[in-house]
Predict the structure.
Amino acid sequence: MSARGWLQIGLLVTLVFTLTPMLGRYLARVFSPGPAPGDRVFLPVERAVYRVVGVDPDREQRWTGYTMSLLAFSVISFLGLYALLRLQGVLPLNPDQRPGVPPSLAFNTAVSFVTNTNWQNYGGEATLSHFSQAAGLATQNFVSAAVGLAVMAALLRGMVRRGATTVGNFWVDLTRVTVRVLVPISLVLALGLVSQGVVQNFHQSRVVVTLEGGSQSIPGGPAASQIAIKQLGTNGGGFFNTNSSHPLENPNGISNFLETLAIVLIPFSTTATYGHMAGSRRQGRVVLAVMTVLWLGSLSVAVWGEARGNPALTSAGVDQVAAADSPGGSLEGKEVRFGPVASAVWAASTTGTSSGSVNAMHDSLTPVGGLVALGNMLLGEVSPGGVGVGLTGMLVFAILAVFIAGLVVGRTPEFIGKKIQAPEVELAMLHVLAMPIVVLGFTAVAVVLPGVLASRANPGAHGFSEILYAFASAGNNNGSAFAGLIGNTPFLNITQAVAMLVGRLLLIVPVLGLAGSLAAKQPVPASAGTFPTDTPLFAVLLLAVVLIVAGLTFFPALALGPVLEALG
């Protein structure tokens, strides 16, 4: 790997761990009672929102009320976005006269963006109007990310409160994190992207004459504003069909670096939020350490796999060594302005979170690179995971880890001073099992259907990986794809939408149940049998639980796909 590649990775890691404690501390203040930075600017906006929607910001909710508010908001969001997509042809800001989106595709797209999945079975610039992009998709990019952070805040409150019956107010959490975190940072990032040449206008497509004398249609639209929040909110839904590999969405190395940083910024920062709200920064550092090991481990393997090139091409005499006039490595399916290293870093980061945005075609990754991308999602996307939901997923694994530790020492397990009993373990297991059931279940059905098999671009192990990847992406609310699979069919549109809903709601509802259950408990004093959860030993145990659970669940499927392809 070149010195430039090492420099990119080093700078990315440095900025992530420099910004994590600052943003994490700010998020803790946003979700805590009392004054918070920026009150003079943000409070009037929030109060106006509360008046419009009729919310009393001082009234908290039980976990059941919090859950019902979240579900009601999700249903209204789905219906509104579905109607907008279907009626697109008669709505304003449609200079290219895009017709309404067909029913099954509109259903899939609405579910996709409401669940923070952002899977796209369509080409954005060729299917959607500017109004659908800006008022529909970009809006859901903000609020679906805010929902994930709100759920995280409710769980953290439940963990630290004593004998409480409430876990916060969903509408307040949703409003505060949108107004105080997502909008301001997205605005700054969007301006940075515009400065690098990312498109931001409301123009219709323009036909231009190419250097070869042909013609080409150049799309316009409000791209930068959507790209900023798609990256920051780990949404991933691109304005253009080829996502951030498109030069109008990601023009150069600077824009690529900013977008990569945005993917992992909030997920890592939530570990510091956890430490502050739990009253123990060491607790947050343990989770940060585990997430970092998983992220850097997957990143290193992906970079190694892509930078070494394709062994089959090497044996054929193709030079894949980095040189002054070539980035080297496996370049198929990648933009030469990024090369294999930046593409591999992005692939590991976007699948380690729930982003799903791409700057290279994942279907063209080497078998090792594809295994990393698929494996990251099948871990449950906790390395570091999506905004809010990544931390909650890791804390669910932490509960399972202390349960296992409790079995070893013969005591009722404890976590953050609370006893972990049967209800908490049952909710944690529901959270862990929901995603594998839909991913493996729908994959098993899909691989025996002739229509789905005909939708693959490749036979054999790689074709199986294309199908498994599609449902892993949907069930983990990721949204990236092995693009060799044609997903815009009625079967895949519907089954993937179901997988998205299960992967979102059947993970969120148990987490909120955990919040309510833990909030009602009284803390117990630590004793000689208490297993400390703020030590390197617990970090090792937590890492082992994450890897073992995913390995036992998914290794047979991975063996039929990328592992077999790599060995073959």
About this structure: Residues 3-567 form one domain.
